[in-house]
Amino acid sequence: MLPEIENLLKLQDVDKEIRRLQDEVAELPRRVSAIEARLAGTKAQLDKAQAALKTDEAARRKYEASITELRTKISKYRDQSLDVKTNEQYRALLHEIQFAEKEIAANEDKILELMVNADTRDKEVKAAQADLKAETAEIEQEKEQARQRTAEDEKLLAEWRGKRDQLRSGISENLLRHYERVSKFRGSGISEVRDHKCMGCQVMLRPQTYNEVRSGKETVVCDSCQRILYFNPKEELIDQIPSLHRPKRHHPKIDATQAWYYRAEFAGDGEVFLCLTNLRGQASRRVYDIHTGRLIGDILIREGDFRQAFPEDITGATRLNGNWSEHDLENFGTELPMVVLDSLNADLDLARHEASTGSHVKEPVPTGQAAS
Length: 372
Known about the structure:
By secondary structure, this protein is of the alpha+beta class. The protein contains 8 helices and 9 strands.
């Protein structure tokens, strides 16, 4: 994997953390507002309870004043009744006295009702005051925690921005601009390639593009979403199969006319697959890049069996399963098809697992050939 791609992966993780912290910082004022709104609701309940208590007290004073006024009228009517001359005048005053007495009784009933409710109102006010006091203390604590969290997030943001600047310095300007432009619209600017597709947009890649990404030798972007692509060998499907459930490896025939080998290093070209073929008394050797499947150099022809013709290439190499006709090899041209490349890589993984578990079976020596 190119160093710039590694830096981009780290940068994307840093950018995600920065966005998370920025969202959290932006959310904190809204959280404080919600806290204050909750406190305002409790205050409103207290105000309502106090207002109800005051209303009842005012009504009681009103009824008491009305009773006083009515009693004054009754006293006045009784004094007037002593001076009346006719029965009609007396009956009229008596009627006024009776009406006033009924009004007094009604007001006294209302006062009694208010006195009964007064205890409930008083309890409601005291309960609301207690709730407000407790909630005020709790909310002040929450607000202080929110302020502390904001300060911590701001500090972390400064640290992450420093890391971001450091990573950006290790990425070319053109690649950085492309990453930022795609990130702005897609939410991410770099995506893993797995199972022949871009995991960002889930679109299958062309074989050549997939091979180029797997090689890790150049920067490749997805034709569909424009994300920068990278390949992680650890995520290969064969690596995800638990060791206990890996399929049993079929061993290649020792006397086959064609043999495929893996070498970790070959003539300065790194990891390669070797294809050795016997045909009409001659042996041919083709060398392919393990990641891209591209043919390296020319096809080499020597006289005799490939084991005698290319002993230096076989020594220390890992024998793999693979058997394609000469016609197929010619049709492959300068690049192995993806299905062939995947088949060889899958068998290589099984061979490595076999070697790591000690279950490797030593390749037998064909009849007539001395063991080395």
